[in-house]
Amino acid sequence: MKKPARISGASLRHAFREIIWPRRGLVAGGVALILVNRLAGLVVPASTKVLVDDVLGQADLGLLWRLLLLVGLAVLVQSVTSYLLTLLLSVEAQRLIAQLRAQIQRHVLRLPVRRFDNTRSGELVSRIMDDVEGIRNLVGTGLVQLLGGAVTALVALVFLLRIHPLLTVLALAPLALFGLASTRAFRVLRPTFRRRGAVRAEVTGRLTEALGGIRVIKGFHALEQEAQVFEEGVMRLFATIRKTLVTSSAISSLGTLLTGVAGLMVMGYGGYLIVHGQMTLGELLSFTLFLGYLINPISQMANIGTQMTEAFAGLDRTAELLSWPTEEQDPRRTRVLPPLRGHLVFEDVHFRYEPDKPVLRGISFQAEPGQVVALVGSSGSGKSTIAALAAGFLEPEAGRVLVDGVDLREVVLASYRAQLGLVLQNDFLFDGTIRDNLRFARADATDQEILEAARRAHVLEFAERFPEGLDTVIGERGVKLSGGQRQRVTIARALLADPRILILDEATSSLDTESEALVQRGLAELLRGRTTLVIAHRLSTIRRAHQILVVEAGRIVERGRHDELMDRRGRYYHLYELQARI
């Protein structure tokens, strides 16, 4: 129970400091417009007594024309201020949403990679896109209408008390009960809205996964199974929505009931006062209209209060997300790397993803500038974890990873990754053209540089068969390309980056024999003069490596050059012979 309260307090402070205060001029202008709008609206009930008691009672046509002019002017002021209010605040609210989404996305992209390993991408998408949607009420018409409604109700209350204090007290008694009930209801709604946002993010995450893995779902005939999983999720989402709808409906229904009770009291006691000559008909009509101007804002505030509660629930989740520390916020990271020589060292590195399951156990090796170090071993031995540590995606729990003598935990990662090239096992491509995906490595690359990288990685050999060439749209995750073609694009992307340190994780795993031979020639040129960490199951691709490390169960069990390891007839020899027989 304490954690939501803490986040809620942070949300309120964040809302005022980061959202409302920087837009104080806009909010003040909106408040001024809403005040003028609501005060102009009070001209009608205020003029009713004059119309009934003075104009009609005394047949004063001159007063009638002046009264009509005043009411007409008030109506014009209302319409103009309503238009300006919507134009001013609604547009600004949408701008705020866009800015918040950009801010949150920028923050999310800077989170440590391990955070992404533990959070569904679809859930993050939902938090970026959905949680800020209700926040428009903080700067949009919601907040201003809440303030304007309060002012309108206060002014109407002053007029009511001037007309008849006792009748005002009788009318307000049921409304006071409504206010107390609404306050308690909003306390119930806020955690429910938070829960709804969490369930929505979870369901969105599952849906994103399902759409991305549609071939697996269809291939394993798991359509009904996945449909049931999603249906269970949307039904849990429905349960939270139902709770908010039931509570909101109860507030609205209670408001209708108590408003009716207030009307009955005014009708009964007001009729009694008129019969006994203690109130004029004009005063009762004016009182009734002013009471409406008091009740309507209160009813609106109940609805706006629900919207604001939802907005603050979204702010709770947004504040929580923004509280996640980014890589740059690590106080240890103060070293900006100069141009690298490329000396990579692992010193007794230990790592585990789960407390009782060590992945790496005392890994030590070094790659001199320009050397190629190859990691081989069975699946799950820890090779990809070593690559992730070398890229700065993970941090060792013990030991050090050094680049040019500097501990990676002290490095501003942007200065390191600007000199790092990656070709990962899961060759991720973005929806767009081949050229777009190549330029992702260097936004300022010229067309000639892109063409050269594509040529060296043998991308042109298949791209030129497409009518659009390098401008061919390849679909989400490069689905329109074969596995080997996608891999060659990722290699060309690394070539274009021109890194000092290169990490190749299963870089040729998806290539047929012919494509592999072509890419190997491009890689040989790429590796020259660069420190390279190569992970490969195909041992034939690493025979020329300066050092081969055989990793098993998180330990280096053998190390040396290809010929040396073959002569030892150890683990590497058996792996190599096994592949040769396949």
Structure description:
The protein has 21 helices and ten strands. It is α/β, with parallel strands linked by helices and 582 residues long. Strands 6-7-8-3-9-10 form a six-stranded mixed β-sheet, with helices on both faces. Helix 1 (2-20) crosses helix 12 and helix 9 (165-212) runs parallel beside helix 12. The longest helix is centred in the middle third of the chain and has 53 residues, at 223-275. The two termini are 60 Å apart. The model is unreliable at 1-9 (pLDDT under 50).
List the SSEs and their pairings:
Layout (H helix, E strand, L loop, with lengths): L1 H19 L3 H18 L1 H16 L2 H49 L3 H5 L3 H9 L6 H4 L1 H23 L1 H48 L1 H6 L3 H53 L5 H43 L20 E11 L2 E11 L4 E5 L6 H8 L7 E6 L2 E2 L5 H5 L2 E4 L10 H6 L7 H10 L3 H4 L19 H15 L3 E5 L7 H15 L3 E5 L11 E6 L2 E6 L1 H7 L2 H11 L1
Parallel strand pairs: 3-8, 3-9, 6-7, 7-8
Antiparallel strand pairs: 1-2, 1-4, 4-5, 9-10
Helix pairs in contact: 1-12, 2-4, 2-8, 3-4, 3-12, 6-9, 8-9, 8-12, 9-11, 9-12, 11-12, 16-18, 18-19, 20-21
